[in-house]
Amino acid sequence: MDPALRTLVSRRRILLGLGGLALADAVGAAGCTTTVSPVTGSNGGLGADDMAAARGAIARATALAAAYRTAAGRHPSLRSLFDPLRAHHEVAVSTLGAQVPAAATTTPPAGATGSIPTASAPAGVTPAGATPAGVDESPTALAATLASLRATESSATAAARADSLRVSGMLAPLLASLHAAGVAQVELLDLYTAQVNGGQPAATARSVG
């Protein structure tokens, strides 16, 4: 591992831990344990606005999980960053879907690639020692991917905060936890962006929400 990234990795562990705790706290507040039992009825008796918020949260988390999966494939050097963030969003999708099953019926199909562009992969076997098709570890490509992910995370985080203030019942603490975790994830992306850009100051997560 690049020694210059060690501080960022330590920071990453802290932020991801905080994000995981926030999600776990919300799940507990919603009455969700290891085995999740949905509330009565497929929509849990939620109104139209609450159902729309739940569907929106699932769609955003699904898209982000797909975007991180694509980013990890394009930039293997940052897989240790992208894989945990993808996993967090997958947990969010499963938790929301377990709490409000009806909201999970409109999620995008699995395998969506999100907004991260990838190079076309030519047919044939990659020669030994060659860079696999679609992989681009250049600083320009890394910075572009991080910027795209940050914008998507920031938008999702702001939406989760707005929805958490207007929904009712068990959705409010869960959406609030997604907002809290999102703020940490945006800050983490900023740290890596600063590293990729040679230590230049990056925008802070405080601007989110």
Describe the structure.
This protein is an all-alpha fold and 209 residues long. Helix content is 59%, strand content 0%. It contains five helices and no strands. The longest helix has 27 residues. It is elongated, with a radius of gyration of 18 Å. The C terminus is likely disordered.
pLDDT averaged residue by residue: 74
Q: How many separate helices?
A: 5
Order of helices and strands: HHHHH
Gross geometry: elongated
Low-pLDDT runs of 5+ residues are 27-40, 107-115, 117-128, 201-209
Task: Please describe the topology of this protein.
Layout: H1 6-29, H2 48-74, H3 79-99, H4 139-164, H5 171-196
Helix pairs in contact: 1-3, 1-5, 2-3, 2-4, 4-5
Short description:
The protein has 209 residues and is mainly alpha-helical.
